[in-house]
Amino acid sequence: MRVKICGFTDPGQARAAARLGVHALGFVCVPGTPRYVDAARLREIAAALPPFTFKVGVFVNASIKTLRAAIEAGGLQAVQLHGEESPESCARLARTLPGILRIKALRVRGAADLTKIAPYTDAVEAVLLDAWHPTQAGGTGQTLDWQALQGFRPALPWLLSGGLRPANLAKALEILAPDAVDLSSGVENGVPGQKDLSKITQILRIASSPFAIERDCGE
Ligand SMILES: O=C(O)c1ccccc1NCC(=O)[C@H](O)[C@H](O)COP(=O)(O)O
After folding, report:
1. Per-residue pLDDT tens over the stretch 158-179
2. Residue limits of the N-(5'phosphoribosyl) anthranilate isomerase (PRAI) domain (predicted)?
């Protein structure tokens, strides 16, 4: 099970997470949100990371100019799109941003929302299912209804996100079979953007062997 951790703001914490074996690191490039990193900070974090670290920028309805600036500053390999980006605009990014993987994030309130995924099948490389929230585009700590997603097998790779933490990851992986998991607030110490390396270590352990781990990761 691949693990993506999102919302790093500190170069030292990002480097430590990469060294622990986190597969992909995410950086929130959305001004006005609590984990926002601007281009200068993104550059600083990227410079602190070991070679070959997979870096993902997180955006909401960003312009091509904004995407390009962040890709350049952070040496990003992928963009994760949390706004109302249409399948057509995602498909166009293959030409405007060649070589950059596209992940479309969809906020899911119920099984009916899953019908939104099919139009993205040929437009992005992966979808990320996040929890629905009336005002926040991500990082909410809210979980999806995992039972309602049981048997979910989209035509493209998918990441499970939304409210995952050491105490519930094994349970989520008992019910669902995503290609990767994505976490943010569940591996923080209560302050947005401040990651807790011991929680990240627990997550990596659970993700590598979810059914062998006793659920002793109480909150
Ligand atoms: O994390 C944010 O602050 C954020 C803000 C705006 C758009 C997206 C954002 N996060 C995207 C992520 O990939 C998070 O990891 C995902 O929403 C899950 O967050 P959490 O429920 O806290 O694990």
Report:
1. 999 999 999 999 999 999 999 9
2. 3-204
For residue 184, how far is its CA from the centre of ligand 1 (angstroms)? 6
C-alpha 90 to ligand 1 mean position (Å): 19
For residue 51, being part of any structural domain is answered with yes
Could you tell me if the CB of 185 is within 6 A of ligand 1?
A: yes
Structural domain span for residue 12? 2-208
Catalytic residue check, 130: yes
**Domain assignment present for 35:** yes
Yes or no: say if 57 and 29 are a contact pair by the CB < 8 Å rule. yes
Of the residues 28, 136, 142, 187, which should be mutated to test ligand 1's pocket, given the most ligand atoms within 8 Å of the CB? 28
Is the shortest distance between the CB of 7 and ligand 1 below 6 Å? yes
Residue 214 falls within a domain, yes or no? no
| pTM across the whole model | 0.93
Q: What CATH number corresponds to the domain at position 190?
A: 3.20.20.70
Q: Is residue 216 part of a domain?
A: no
Length of the chain in residues, anyone? 219
| Burial (0-12, 13-18, 19+ Cβ within 10 Å), 151 | exposed
